[in-house]
Structures are given as C-alpha cells and as structure tokens.
Amino acid sequence: MVLKLETSLIRDWNGYKGRPFLISGPCSAETEEQVMETAWALAKIPQVSIFRAGIWKPRTRPDSFEGVGVAGLKWLARVKKETGLLTATEVANEKHVYEALKHGVDMLWIGARTSVNPFTVQEIADALRGADVMVFIKNPINPDVELWIGAIERVAKAGIRRMAAVHRGFSSYEKTTYRNQPNWQIPIELRRRIPDLPIICDPSHISGNREYIHEISQKALDLNFDGLMIESHINPSAALSDASQQLTPEDLKELLLRLILRSPSTSDQKLLDILGELRQQIDVYDDHLIDLLEQRMKVAEKIGMYKKENNITILQSARWDEIVKRAMIRGKSKGLSEELIDNLFKAVHQESINRQMKVMNNGITNHNGSEGK
Ligand code: PEP
Ligand code: MN
What we know:
Elements: E1 21-25, H1 32-43, E2 48-52, H2 71-83, E3 86-90, H3 94-102, E4 107-110, H4 112-115, H5 118-128, E5 134-138, H6 145-157, E6 163-167, H7 185-193, E7 199-201, H8 203-207, H9 213-222, E8 227-231, H10 249-258, H11 269-309, H12 317-333, H13 338-361
Parallel strand pairs: 1-2, 1-8, 2-3, 3-4, 4-5, 5-6, 6-7, 7-8
Helix pairs in contact: 1-2, 3-5, 5-6, 11-13, 12-13
The structure holds phosphoenolpyruvate (PEP) and manganese (II) ion.
C-alpha cells in the first residue's frame, strides 16, 4: 500500500522549534498544578514543540493509577492557551478519540499496548476519519515490524496525513539493563519500508531509568531519527506512574546541552570523496563475505548428504557448541563483539540447517553441491 503522508510534518512544520524536535511532559497528568508547572518549565526550553501527558493510562496491574480521565483534558487545553505549547495524549479506544478531539488536543498517540491489536487500531482509525489532527503510532510491544506498519496503514487509510512513528522498544522476558529492548534494526527497517514517515524515539520507555536516557537519545539522533519524546515531571520521585524514568525540566535542559547534533549529509567534496573510497572498500569486503558464505553453505550441504545417507540427525548440539566457542575466541582476538559473533553465527547456522533440511527431504544425493530433484 502506498501511503499518502505529509513528509514535511516535522522539519518544515510551523510548530517545529529546532533540533532535536522534542515532545516532553509527564507520563501521566496527575493534578492541574503538576501539569501547569511542568508545562511552564518546558515552555522555556526552546526545542520543546509538543507537551505530552497521559490522561488514560494503560497499566499492567489493575490497582495502579490509571489516569485522571476526561478532567485532565481541560488542563491540556489550559496548557495550550497559556503556554502556547501544542498538546498530545494517548488514545486507546474510540471514546478517547472523541473526547480528545472535542477538547482540541493537537496530537494523539496510539500506545504500544494498543498498536499490537488490529481491531482496536481499526476502531481508533474509524473514529479519526475526517479529523485534522497529528497521529503518532508507537511500535507494538512485540518486535513485529509488519504489525507496526499495519497500524500505520490503518490510520493512513482513515485519511490522516500528519503521522509519525514512535520507537519505544520491545518487551522481552529476559531482564536486561533497559526496560524494553531497542531492537534498532526494527525502526531502521521501518525507515527503509516507509522513507517518508518521520520516526521519533522515546528513550524514556526504552530505558525505564533516567540514567540511560542520554545514551539512547544520542544513538537515536546518530541514526537520524526525526526527534525525541522524553517524559518529564516537575517532581519525578513523586510521580504516580513511571517515576524512575522521568526527568525534571532542569535535567532535560542539561541533557539537551550534552546531545551532539550531527548532520545527516554533507556537501564537502573532499569528505564525500574519502567516504566514497571507503564505501568502495566496504562493497569489496561485502562481496567477499557473500562468496565465502556461498562456499560455506555448499560444504554444509555436502555434510547434509552424508547425514542423509547415514541416517543421522541434522542438529548436532555438541558440534554447534564447538563452532560458537571457536568463533567467539577468534572473534574476540579480532576485536569483534560477542553480539556480532552470536547474531552472525546464529543466522549462518540456521541457514545451514535449512539447506540440510532441503537436502534430507528433497532427495538431493549427488556430492558435487548442485541440487538434484
Ligand atoms: C506512555 O507514553 O506513557 C506510554 C504508556 O507509552 P507506551 O505505550 O510506549 O508504553
Ligand atoms: Mn510512561
């Protein structure tokens, strides 16, 4: 499906106040004072273009604070009127959409627990039909780029043109440093699939901890994301939701000073020549890699034929452990990260298994590496 989007949404839009494009505000609107005090402090930060606050909060457990509801929309209207900041809130069903539009909220975002559900996204898209509002779509909680694209398409099909995606990381069972796994390759794939769609990074929900917000923000900017959504609260430790990841507006200001803004391209001919030459070298090495993989797979197929003829299983765990161990040691001595070796060898191993499966099940018996039928 070809999406009709306003690609100028962020950089050329008159609400845009400068790099990085920034959406900030509390996880949840809690009281009118908290909302107004936070908004006034953020209004003094030049990059903040949109004030966010959750009115209806999707919470994991039923006894948590679930948002102040419709009453908070009046506070957002006050923020807009008094500070001039545009406003944003999360919508998770059609009633939320009607209420938010009625109160003049400028941007609605679809949260990670909603974008995962096509029925709910469709209900929201139907409620949005004909509305002149910005809609930002967070990635689904599971790492599925198709589901994310599906949600974007549903909203685009409802006639919304001013859209952006928000990368907020992905749930996983393993406990790791971050609350949600960034899986950067997924937003990168989204960029490849829909180049005109701006992508905003939400380092607050990726990190779950204010300590890591700077490093994630920097990475997003270095990957040429279009902006950031960072949670802020006038008194984070007293926040009713996501207390450990919110920044004070003062801390946000300080974080912005430390961010390095790199430019996505250059017109410096000398630099372009150097980069061009280095890129040629990369292309040569990539060709080598592909040729080597081809040779490796041919050997794997031969092994598959012997396994077939001698009736032994494809998966040989001890051999696999040995391969990984060898590769890790050699990779380390060459300065390659464990992550690279692990990902690379998992992919290579999977391909070898697929090839051997084919050999076993398709009756390939010749030993010269070519496929028989
Ligand atoms: C939020 O932005 O406060 C929120 C609930 O986000 P997510 O849907 O990414 O969890
Ligand atoms: Mn939050």
